Amino acid sequence: MTAAAQPPAATPGQPTATPDLLYTQDEEDLRSAVRALLADRADAPAVIAATESDTPYDPRLWEALAAGIGAAGLLVPEKLGGQGASHREAAVVLEELGRSVAPAPYLTSSVVATETLLALARDDGPAPALLSELASGARTAVLAVPFATPPAGARAALTPLDGTVRGVADAAAADVLLVPTSEGLYAVEATAPGVAVEPLVPLDLTRPLATLTLAGATGTLLADAEASTTAVRRGLLAGAGLLASEQLGIAEWCLTETVRYTRERHQFNRPVGSFQALKHRMAQLWLETVSARAAARKAADALATGSPDAPLAVAVAQAYCSGVAVHAAEECVQLHGGIGMTWEHPAHLYLKRAKADSIAYGSAGSHRAAVAELVELPAP
Fold this sequence. Notes:
Layout: H1 25-41, H2 44-51, H3 59-68, H4 87-100, H5 106-118, H6 126-136, E1 141-143, E2 163-169, E3 176-180, E4 184-189, E5 195-199, E6 209-214, E7 220-224, H7 225-264, E8 266-267, E9 270-271, H8 276-305, H9 310-335, H10 347-357, H11 364-374
Parallel strand pairs: 1-3
Antiparallel strand pairs: 2-6, 3-4, 4-7, 5-6, 8-9
Helix pairs in contact: 1-4, 4-7, 4-8, 5-6, 5-7, 7-8, 7-9, 7-10, 8-9, 9-10, 9-11
């Protein structure tokens, strides 16, 4: 898959182009392929069974998604074995992963780690070789920072090669750890001596967390301190921006399934969805979901085009979409009644994913604070 040529990045002070919030035909085709794969291999019973197993994710599903469809290399240039697409296409994949809450290291490896490596902008050395491996799906990597780290906290996330990092998403299944230190960014093999990965029990069982302990570990230096801080910030910014698309997918599934259920569930010889109070609640959810789609698409488009407004678009998307996903999941559980409270029904998976996502790459409050700093208010 090759995306159309992207327009050159705007410079600060210049007006930016009107964002394109619509989906292209290529993006819809990609959505159809990913949705069909997830419907076949990651339906609700399969995801629930995966949360009860000892494996972080299904390797066959990851191989089909990463290599079969080529989703792992969407952000990687073709010369490095990727698809040469953009954040818009990656956002579509994350929407569908949000719809299915499938356990897959796509956000952490194919977005955050990949974007961090791309920020180094080198044509030789270990970074391009690692990018090629990530693009093929043969290996996965994670940025060794707490999952709750916001883009503005890139410098605060620095850790020595002798230290402990808690709450690293998908670290238990990663092949390579990207460790930002005060000396620079290191690529450390997860199986290297001095590396210990201790799985944690997370709220969201579909995205495992782990404590990473480095004791005398050695790695390959990818960039110096200044370049690594910039790269980590770019990786976290892409992660936060495209996480909004995952949250959109969660909200859309919750809304769709709740409407379907309330049409089928009868009480007093009529569908419960026909009751005025429930109509108002679902109409409110629809309005919030539509608004979330606009915010998420704006963030993805800003990242794809290199807009100088990307940090603002990402902050707005996260400040809004995280709350929408949680609200939609809560209403889904509530309006499904007793069945929504059971382990067998997947509603709890969406609520847990939404709650965990609401603090990933920064809480809504931290992103609102970022919006306040980025927006220049006119003088009174």
